[in-house]
Every structure is written in C-alpha cells, then in structure tokens.
Design a protein that fits this description.
Blueprint lengths: L5 H13 L15 H12 L3 H12 L11 E3 L12 H16 L3 E6 L26 H16 L5 E5 L4 H10 L10 E5 L2 E3 L1 E2 L7 E3 L2 E2 L1 E3 L5 H7 L2 H8 L3 E6 L10 H9 L4 E7 L8 E6 L2 E5 L6 H4 L12 E10 H9 L8 E6 L3 E2 L6 E2 L6 E6 L13 E3 L2 H4 L17 H18 L3 E2 L10 E3 L19 E2 L4 E3 L1
Helix pairs in contact: 1-2, 4-9, 7-11
The protein binds uridine 5'-triphosphate (UTP).
The site of uridine 5'-triphosphate (UTP) has 21 residues, from loops.
C-alpha cells in the first residue's frame, strides 16, 4: 500500500478536528517544514478526538459532580502483624509469594511516566537523587532492591518501567548509560504510555505548545493498564511465564518493589488486583480511601469523602475509614489482558486536574505563561480498575518501613511535606530503627530523632531482619554519616 501523502493526511486530520471544533490545531500548518508537518499529523492521529469532545463537555466546560453512593462502607484488610488465628495463613502466603518469585512468575512494574511538575526536576523523576548519603537516584535505589531480590530468591525479577513520550528517550538513555543498573538489559523493559491534550478551561479548545505541536501530557497512571497491553509487555510477560505484576510508583525510594507476603495473600485469595494500605494518620490525610460499594473494592479520593464520614470513629477510637491508598498493587497479568480484550474495550473514568499550562495564543501565536490555572488536564487513575475486579484484598503496611515519597520540592519558608528532605529523614529514621533492633546503639537528639545520617543500601537489607546477617558497627555517633 502506498504511503499516504502529507496532503491526504492533512485532509483527514482536518476533517477529524473540524468535526469536534478543534481545527485551530492546524491553523499554522502551511508555514511548517515537512518534518514538523509530519510530527503534528502524528500527534493528531494519536488523539481520540471524539473522546476529547465528550470530555470537553463533561470535564472541562462543566465540572464532573461526584455523587457518593448510599451504601459506602470501609473495606476490610489484612493487618500488618497477623492476629493469632491468621498467623498460619500469613506463613502460607509468604511461602506462596516466595515460590511465585522463585519460579519467575512475578514482574516488577514501576509507573514513571508522570511529569513530576511539583518536584520541578529537569529530567525523568526516576533519575532524581533520593538517598540520604550516597544520593542514589530513585531508579538506582530500586535497582539495588531488585538485585537483592534476584540474589535472595535465586531468579532475576524482570522490571517493566512505564515512561511517557515526553521522558521515554531520556529514561532509555539513563538506563543505557548506567548499564541497566547491573540488572541485565534483557530484564529491563521500558515502554511509553499515551498522552492527552491539555484543554483551555474557559474555551474548551485544545492548547498548542507551539504552532507545530499540541500541548500534550501523559494520560495518568491509569493509562498503564492500556499501555501494558498496547506495548506488547503483556504478551511478553505471558511468553516468559509471568503471572503477577507488582505495581509501584517511581517516587518512593523505600517501596518494597517485590513483597512475597503481599503477593502471596493476593494469590491465595485468587484476586485480580489487590492493594497495600496505610492507616491514615488523620481524617483528611491526602490518601484515597479504600471502601466497599456493593461489595466491590473502590477508592474514594480524600477530597470526595465527606468530612462527616472521614471523621467517624470506631468505639476503640480508630478512624472508621482508616485504610489509605499508597498506590501499591498486585495485578494479575490475565486481568490486564482481559480488560483489554473485552468486547468494546474498557474505559477508566477521567479525572479533571486544573493546571498552569504554558501555550501559544491561537490568534497572536505569542507564547503565554499563565500565572494561574488556565487549563484542564485529563487523567485516569489505576485504582479505578479495582471495582472491575471480582476479588481484591488489602494488606496493611508499616508507614516507617515503606513510605517515604518525594512529591514536592523543598522550598524556603514552606513547611515541607513529601519532599526530598522529608524522604531522606524518613530513610534515616527507618535505618536507625532497624539498626537498634539489631543491637546497634544509634545517637539520638533531645527530640528522639537520629542524630546522624544513615543509609542502608537495599543490597544490604530490605527487611529489618536482614541486618542480623550484616557486619554492623557497635554504635553510630552523633554527627556521623554512615552507609551500610
Ligand atoms: P503523581 O500523581 O504524583 O504525578 O504520580 P507526577 O507526575 O509524578 O507529579 P506531579 O503531579 O506532576 O507533580 C504518581 C506516580 O504515577 C506516575 C508518576 O510517574 C508517579 O510514579 N504517573 C503519573 C505516570 O506514570 N503517568 C501519569 O500520567 C501520571
């Protein structure tokens, strides 16, 4: 078949855009070079324009209204430490999870396609220096975890990393230049997710980044469930005999990328997609709430849970809606496949995010740097696949052991929340606790905080008990900087 000429492609693209009143995207077409024309047409071909038109109506020109279902109840979970009557089940689950990893049936999956706008790092977020002493990048820290996993369970764990077209090349270059972090090129697979146009909040028109390109952004971590399939990653996993995907985010340097106990509970209970939770520290902590609606697992965003429910307490004083989502999931490979091969496909709901998006003025073609939110970005969230499951469990993890996210930049005069500094402090705190458990005396200040900076390599330990086998100092003095 002869390749379509640029002119034919232009005519088809123009018709698709005109049908949804977005033909301004092609306003400068005649003035572009051939290469720019081809790139813009590629961008246009990759957008689902009828879907954009629907979303402009429902999510841009109007704000979607969240209606809380009448029968929302808190979801149950497996406790971090098993009650006596479940100790046997946990033992069995840990063993089952380890067997899955040993048999090569588990893949690690990191979503790293986000723009990291709040952090403001010039590069893929995974390349951000994250550890307290060595300043290892997020990817390096995770790479050490996977090296430890391969040594411990006797089999390399394949690592799938979702990028976006905006950071795919830079991420690929990073892994190539760093020799795939010692994991073996064949065990690291990078693939990009799809993008969505940013849309002017007032006019509903798609924004242009330049006369030759649309202002596109990644379509949310929910896009991973389609990208895994569309990229061929699912087909490849099946060929390798992989049955379970261990899903984590790129921004948490101490996340347990592979956790046999969690994977085992999920597998023994024959779940399609399961989650880890943290008990919320306070009622409106910015974590999604795990709920049951008509018996289906559902995450209700913190902003959508009415205060009255968020603040409800049980007789023992615990929050009634206590289980907060920290974006850690176990997902069956065949579940992702079945979603993508359903007749008519599947759609996760889009969420509206108001953002400042630089663009060019459609009429004057001059660049505009907005001072306040001017655009709507449309994203899907992976947890919205939970209600599509027949079976799903939650396992409670320990905040100190597994949660040190890096979301925001440290800024003078702004109380730090989930910044590089808070993450490093938590990594030190976890290290100090683990060392004390192993009998090491760690200097602490008057507030009880460790008075040293301590980094435990994930090659040395991914569980506190691992330190029993490690060569450790008798004490860590005030002011010390230590790597173990
Ligand atoms: P966040 O929601 O924290 O977004 O992503 P972000 O893009 O990293 O940062 P901001 O909001 O622009 O400051 C949580 C996780 O989901 C991934 C991110 O890379 C991160 O690991 N993500 C997010 C994607 O992979 N794709 C997306 O489209 C959005």
């Amino acid at each position: 078949m002869a390749a379509q000429s640029i002119q034919d492609r232009f005519v088809a693209a123009h018709a698709a855009l005109a049908a949804v009143a977005q033909e301004h995207v092609l306003a400068s077409f005649a003035a572009l070079s051939d290469a720019q024309k081809a790139e813009l047409l590629d961008q246009i071909d990759n957008v689902d324009w009828p879907e954009v038109a629907r979303l402009v109506k429902s999510h841009v020109l109007a704000k979607p209204h969240f209606a809380l279902p009448a029968n929302v109840a808190p979801a149950p979970w497996y406790a971090n430490v098993p009650p006596a009557d479940q100790a046997g089940k946990y033992q069995q689950a840990r063993k089952a999870g380890e067997e899955l990893v040993r048999a090569g049936k588990v893949a690690a999956f990191t979503v790293a396609g986000g723009q990291g706008t709040r952090l403001g790092w010039n590069g893929p977020k995974g390349t951000f220096p994250a550890t307290p002493v060595r300043n290892l990048s997020l990817f390096q820290s995770m790479g050490e975890y996977l090296l430890n996993a391969a040594r411990r369970w006797g089999k390399p764990v394949p690592w799938y990393v979702m990028t976006s077209p905006a950071n795919h090349q830079a991420t690929t270059d990073y892994f190539t230049q760093n020799d795939f972090l010692g994991l073996g090129k064949e065990n690291v697979k990078l693939f990009p997710q799809a993008m969505m146009p940013a849309i002017d909040m007032k006019t509903g028109k798609v924004l242009l980044e330049s006369p030759a390109s649309i202002a596109l952004s990644p379509n949310g971590h929910g896009g991973s469930l389609k990208a895994l399939y569309a990229s061929g990653a699912i087909a490849e996993m099946k060929k390798r005999g992989i049955e379970q995907i261990s899903y984590t985010q790129v921004d948490n340097p101490i996340v347990r990328i592979i956790d046999p106990l969690f994977l085992g509970l999920h597998a023994l209970d024959r779940c399609e997609m399961s989650s880890k939770m943290l008990p919320k520290a306070y009622p409106k902590e910015k974590l999604g709430n795990f709920c049951l609606i008509d018996g289906r697992m559902t995450v209700i965003e913190y902003s959508d849970l009415p205060d009255e429910l968020a603040e409800q307490r049980l007789p023992n004083g615990d929050l009634r809606f206590r289980a907060g989502s920290i974006a850690i999931h176990a997902i069956r490979v065949d579940f992702v496949e079945s979603l993508n091969t359903r007749p008519g496909g599947f759609a996760l709901p889009f969420h509206r995010a108001e953002k400042k998006v630089p663009h060019i003025d459609i009429v004057t073609k001059q660049p505009v740097e907005p001072k306040s939110n001017n655009a709507v970005k449309l994203e899907t969230f992976v947890f919205d696949a939970l209600p599509l499951c027949e079976r799903s469990i939650i396992y409670e993890t320990d905040r100190l052991d597994e949660f040190a996210p890096i979301k925001n930049a440290d800024q003078e005069g702004v109380a730090p929340i989930d910044t590089p500094n808070t993450s490093k402090a938590r990594q030190t705190l976890r290290a100090a606790g683990w060392l004390e458990k192993a009998g090491v005396k760690v200097a602490r200040n008057a507030k009880g905080e460790p008075d040293a900076v301590i980094e435990i390599s994930q090659l040395t330990a991914i569980y506190a008990e691992d330190l029993k086998k490690a060569k450790l100092p008798a004490k860590i003095d005030a002011g010390a900087k230590v790597v173990l």
